Amino acid sequence: MAQLVAQEEKDNASLKDLLSRIDLDELMKKDEPPLIFPKTLEEFEYAFNEHGQLRHTKTGEPFVFNYKEGMHRWNQKRYEALGEIITQYVYELLEKDCKLRKEMLPVDATENEPKSFIYMSEDALTNQDKLLVLIQGSGVVRAGQWARRLIINQDLDSGTQIPFINKAMQEGYGVIVLNPNENALEVEKVGDPSADAWDEPAEKRERKEECEGKQKKDGHEKYRNPQKERETKRIPIRENSSPEEHTLYVWDHFISRSPAKNIFVVAHSYGGLSFVELMIQREDEVMSHVHAVAMTDSVHNVWHQEASRSTREWLKERCCNWVSSPEPLDTPVDSLLPDCRRRSAGTEKHELTSWSSFKSIFRFFNEHLQSQMEEGRVEEQKEEQKEEQKEEQPEEVKEEQKEEEEEEDGSTTVTTQKRAKHEDL
Where is there biased composition of kind Basic and acidic residues (predicted)? Predict the structure, then answer.
């Protein structure tokens, strides 16, 4: 019996020794295809149909994520490659169909520095009536998108901002589309990435090598075929290196310069947080320019962001947040932190809240415009009544009022002359 146990231990030791000499990375690379993907929709064999749905050009089927069974990383990389193509496709729609123009940021950027951009309608800075500002959430989405997943798996209407842009232009708004996630330029690292490792202390380097060796031996790799990818570094875009910084920059250089009497904002998810941060930085300007804000499942928190009391009061009056909820659309939703009105977006899917609330948002804006018009009419009526009362007064009363006004003007003139003499002395 003892001999059997000894033999088993010897066999296990031999097996461990064999496994330790196997390069699992190289072994696994035989299973996964190269991380090289098509550069156009046509090469992917996909296209958008007349309903804005992405379909395979040969089978007519929706996009399939699990193109290769059991290779999650490869499928994910394929999905991301398609997503980059979708981003360029949406840019083309903004320019060709929506007639928006690209405005480069920073406005004084040099030729060689990293740049970002936003999209604007031709009348964005000349429309004296209304302006619509669109702020997306965080992540991989770029200008003109609410959710990449919806564009690929559902349709262009639900996943892009294009319906909002078209509706706004039909109703006479100028439009500005922000691009808060375009924060840095990614460039490939040059030289030997491992060269820097020799600058580390020997003890630290040995511990790292021992740890990496143990991972290979134990087979604890995250993916079944970890091909080496190109290494990149990020160069921040000046004054636009974060969503909050980008929103502030666009406000200072574009939105605040708009002559529009009524500025409206739609902010989704992290875009709501960026707008609140803008209010904290430019409170008086925002309050005097922005007429109403529609948020969709916003992640802002006025207490954590340390918003002032006046900002909180303004949001309660001028802001509505359509949140993910099982309740029917526009149903009031209670909140433990009552920072602004909350209504159900009619969906429990976070990324769908903007599209689900589309009609309600424009109705909300129109309600604010109507209330402003009514307030304006009330003021006009008051002025007209004052003029009528003056006309109806007897001539003697009018003469007395005229004399009183002349006496006030005279006393003001004398006071001014005395002050001038005193200053001369």
Answer: 201-235, 374-401
Buried b (16+ CB within 10 A) or exposed e, 52-63: bbbbeeeeeeeb
Q: What pTM, to 2 d.p., does this model score?
A: 0.76
Residues 230 and 366 grouped into a single domain: no
Q: Can you spell out the DSSP letters for 303-368?
A: TTTT--HHHHHHHHHHEEEEE--SSPTT-B---SS-SSEEEE-S-S-GGGHHHHTHHHHHHHHHHH
Amino acid at 18: L
Same domain, 245 and 355: yes
Are 73 and 25 in a shared domain? no
Residue 240 in contact with residue 179, Cβ under 8 Å?
Answer: no
Beta-bridge mates of residue 131 = 174, 263
Q: Which residues, 6+ apart, have CB-to-CB distance to 70 below 8 Å?
A: 224
Is-cis flag, bond preceding 193, omega within 30?
Answer: no
- 350 with 314, same domain: the answer is yes
Catalytically active residues are 269
Query: What does the pLDDT average to over 11-28?
Result: 58
Residue 63: the pLDDT is 95
Quick check: is 410 in a domain?
A: yes
| Euclidean distance between CA atoms 60 and 49, whole angstroms | 9
Angle CA 298–302–304, to nearest 5: 105
Same domain, 300 and 333: yes
Structural domain harbouring 42: 31-97
CA separation for the pair 92, 99 (Å, rounded)? 10
For residues 16 and 35, membership in a common domain is answered with: no
Please indicate whether residue 397 or residue 37 has the higher confidence score (pLDDT): 37
Considering the domain architecture, whether residues 17 and 55 belong to the same structural domain is answered as no
Q: Are 56 and 17 in a shared domain?
A: no
> Facing residues of 103 across strands?
118
Total number of domains in the chain: 4
d(CA 206, CA 201): 9
